[in-house]
What does this fold into?
Amino acid sequence: MGYPHEPHPKETLILSKHFGDAGARSYDGWVKCGGYQALKRALAMDPADVIEIVKESGLRGRGGAGFPTGLKWSFMPKERRKPHYLCCNADESEPGTFKDREIMRWTPHALIEGCAIAQHAIQAEVCYIYIRGEFTEPIAIMQAALDEAYREGVLGGNAMGTNRRIDMYIHRGAGAYICGEETALMNSIEGRRGNPRIRPPFPAQQGVFGMPTTINNVETLVSVLPVLNEGAEWYKDLSLGNPKSTGTKLFSVCGHVRKPGNYEVTMGFPLGELVNDLCGGMRDGRTLKACIPGGSSVPILNREETEACLLDYEGCVEQGTMLGSGGVIVFDDSADMVYQIMRLARFYAHESCAQCTQCREGTAWTVRILERILRGEGEMKDLDLLLDLSEQMTGKTICVLSDSCAAPIVSGIKKFRDEFEAYITGAKQPVAALT
Amino acid sequence: MPALLINGQRVDAADGATILDAARAAEIDLPTLCWYPKLPTVGNCRICVVSVEGEDKLLPACAATVAEGMRVETESAAALDARRGVLQMLLERYPADHLINGGRAEPRNEFEEYVVRYGVTPRAVAAHELSLRQGDERPGDPMISHDMSLCILCTRCVRACEDIQVVGVLDVAYRGEGAQIVVGADGDPDKAACTWCGECVRVCPTGAIFEVMPRERFGESRVAADRVVRSICPYCGVGCQIDLHVKDNEIARVTSPTFEETTPNDGSTCVKGRFGYDFTQHRDRLTKPLIRKGWVRRGGRWIWEGATGAARRGGPWQSMTEEGRGDKPAAPPRAIGKRIRDLSLLERITADVRDRATTPETWYQPFREATWDEALELVTQELTRIHADHGPDAMAVFQSAKCSNEENYLLQRLFRGAFGTNNVDHCTRLCHSTSVSAMQDALNTAAASGSMREVEEACDVIFIAGANTTETHPVFGVSLKRAHERGAFLIVADPRRTELAARADVHLQMQPGTDVALLNAMLQHILAEGLENWSFIETRTHDFDTVRKAVQPYTPERAAAITGIPAELIRAAAERYARGPNTTTIWAMGLTQHLTGHDMVTSLLNLILATGMIGRWGAAMMPVRGQNNVQGSSDMGAIPFAFPDYQAVADPANRDKFARVWGVDPKTMSLVPGLTVTEMAREGSPVKALYIMGENPIISDPDIAHAEAWFRTIEFLVVQDMFLTETARYGDVILPAASFAEKTGTFVNTERRIQLSEQAIDPPGQARADWEILVDLSNRIGIKSPFSSPADVMEEIREVAPAWAGVTYARLRGGGLQYPVPHDDHPGTAFLFADRFPTADGRALFHAVEYADPGELPDDEYPFVMNTGRMLYHWHTGTMTRRSRGLDAREPVATVEVHPDDAAELGLADGDMAKITSRRNSIVISVRMSDRVARRQIFVPFHFREAAANLLTNPVLEPHAKMAALKVTAVRLEPATVPATA
It folds into this structure.
């Protein structure tokens, strides 16, 4: 659902509190909402203390991997012997995910504030905000806010009157999913082809332009504000019992639900409740069949797993999937899982940077086999070939793009094998036109 | 030094080494596709994965660093499974039907070898679910072509192009399964600044990128060589080692040794080295001795019965002046865009560029074929007779910078020993003679102080004065580019905006010939800023005061007025030069081929000495030598003032020593330095008998219309060459010689590295190696030469040349030796002058020099300054490269570089014919608009006989070294009214 709308009473509005309020977009509006207090606090503190608070809060990366944010910051060299960089990953391209877009649309200054705090903590003068190129509206809003922040002295050579330099630049992506991978993103900023880099060296040692770099997701950086404003303890308490997953998280729900949209709930919120209650459940006469809880790159859950799943890092792992970016894709019983999986595979095949053999050839080959099955030309041994290829595509490449392609295939064949077999045996009519 | 276990074997690895490094060092075989020595690691093929205890994933051995106590299994089930998976996926895009059925067919390349080794069965192409790969294919390219269905996207070629050659022609375009290798932005390598070096060919593991010539001759199947022979590239002074693949007594292809061998070229070559070998098999090769018709043998004596006077050497041919106006077939356009096989048969014939530059039939007509016995008898008779009739001064020899040390040694031995003359010289005269004279005066040395490798690895500032290194010494030029990429500061002083000048941090674009003003001003500014190296000046040099006084008036402002370079740039360059900490100074013909060449080099040496930028690793003095053995020929005494190893001919002790070794009476040998090349071949010269080995002065010497006239008048001329060259036309006897591939010998590169080149194939017909001819001739003339191999000659060289005393053929195999090598156990000398200079007291001498104008200045009638030089694809007088199909296809016609604004003013456009006129002559030439030249300057390469630049040049000689002023000629440029070709 678009903003503004009435929030659901079970939501916990912290990041999305001002979504729908156009007034919060401006500098003045943001200050009225209590903005830039967190930055003021941070700048008064020693960078190491800022990192300590963030560590204490239990905040973990919201881009997908869930790495503890304070720990990541602490990997940066303590002494600034050469330039440090912050990259804000706003290349939100994960299918099913659209939370960062809303953060930038409604609260651009929150992101600027979050970036500035992180820059202070890791001693980076420069931050690149790498925004997905298709986000034309968010880019315009972010640029306007950035200009304003410079005018108001938040940024620039004397940031917030502290006589320190904080600069931010917006870098527009050019339409490659892989540039959301942090090392490909750095290559892209440098003007190179967006290929992921081998790690080590890790970005904190050799990142963008070969300098120590930290890359954080938009939502992660914005989540730093409540941590500093309300304290680490307060933030940590925003959790439904699992101390390893703290705070709130935005979930983008799409698919066969009555009320798709962004929902902010505390960590540990039941997935079944999100789908059936907050999102209004399935359409009339339909039942839940499957769900991908963390953006398209994570294993698919069947109905039972969906209803048992708790939305935090550990809860998802317990059900054999991952929290990922929080893009919840819901399928009802009308969905053709074979077709859906083929579409997902096509996406990855199209977006493969083509560096690693398994990804370049494996994703494409996988698509061909799935298409063949859908055309009614499949054989039973194709399922083994798909699993073999998926095995080759898992854990063997520079980045995890091919793993992401394999995940829905492996879980799909495991959980919905009958649908594949129906096409192969002819029990199901072939798809006439594959679109 | 972490220690790890690989397959249970303990391996000590270097810090920071990868698992692959450790495995290779321990000779544990690991498959690699994308990894290649010297290329940046990308880890994308995933075939080198290994199991490491404690890691849940397989690790790529090429990218994973070792750690203490690591336990690695290279052949674990998981690793093998992953490797087979990689191969299976690559095979789904690759035509490998020939490997089905148990791989009965031979694997054709590195990739297919892995397919067979790991027992992966390819699926038939017809059954593939993925299409064969595509990519740019360079249609019609004369040297490099692609079959991209064989590409496995390992990207070695991309990295070789970008990181080794620093060109960046190749790249990966598109993504996913559509990813492919592309050439430039639109498939045209020309527009993408490709240099055709073939580095991509070298690194390609599947043959997707391949050389055109071997495939045309040997078909698609692998060129299985009968043998592979290590040789030295016959072109420039870098001295690249190359491997000749011999098939049926012909060179089938040329490859370079791997990076891991110690060679000057680190595994690279340039376009000439890799593709310029087919001249050896050209149909123009001389296969029998030729004697001018008119010489007849009567009563045991040879008698001249032909025409006399000017008609004696007249042929049916055109003189050089008329050459450009002849009815040569039109040159084809640069051979890009259309495959040769797509052309009609008729077009294919006219597109055979070789017919433009090859020996015309008329040139053979004045000669008859002879036996070796006849030819050598005639040579012996006439040389002996003229020596008896006119004395030693009438005898002269042009030796060759393209021949081996042994051959040069033998030839000067013959002329000094048998004829008592020091009229011994070679093309160094037109090369670094002014450098040698200046370096001898200042440092008593005649060679580079450092090594090419130190420049790439260790220097902080590179100062290049008058050297177009990327075109004339491409492999060294590339290492300079890599040094610049690494962070070295690059200063280039050149009137032209060459490739290096364009990428330089400071380009000092001066008016031609004003270098002394620039260099003096740099030193003036260094002194004004107190950046000179006082301790070096005080402990290592003499006479600094004279230079300090002399440079005082050369303020940057004054120099700016003379050179046209902004004073600020001069200051900036001077400061960076002096601050180093390690500055390397490189120069070539741009400094030496001037009327004031000696002064220019002297002022550069003053700069080097005042800042102490010599004698340290990274601070090298590098005059880059042009020919593959110009250093060695000079070392072997092919210069008028010195015996081998620069032992002065004027010193009686030296004379006595050589007379003893050569078995001649010292009194018959001369103590007077002889004539230089430039003095021999001109009106009024005393020379009556001239012996030319492998040189072509008619094209290379200044004002060749006059030189040609002199050659007509000479009494007896012997030319020893592979081809009937422009010069050989005037010969009485032409002796067919072997090419570099057809003989064994040693060569010295620009960093004093003596290297061994071994015979790979037999000479064509009755052609003989130069050393064999010279041994035979020496014995006939009466200088005892009991040599049965070049190695025997080296034994005598060791005896007489102290710096070569430790040189043996056995020791030269591999990387060669950098002289001085004073004894058998000496490892050679990478850099010189760490503590002292080879002067009497070990100190260098400063010499003050003043700026003087470069001779022929432009005026209203001749408003342009013509610069001459070389281009990437051709070599000197074109004898070899214009008979190399690929090279000549790249540059089939003579062109003049004209600034676009000048061209517009004159109404000239690209490809138009223009007439260039100097005070001596005129040529007609095709225009190439280029902003590499400044306004009112033009550049003419001297390779083309149909538009010979040296018809125009000024024969005035530099006073110290008798160098010709080839770089500055005042000319007029105008549209040609008569087209050059019919």
Q: What stands out?
A: DSSP finds 36 helices and 41 strands in chain B. Confidence is low (pLDDT under 50) at residues 335-341, 343-350 of chain B.
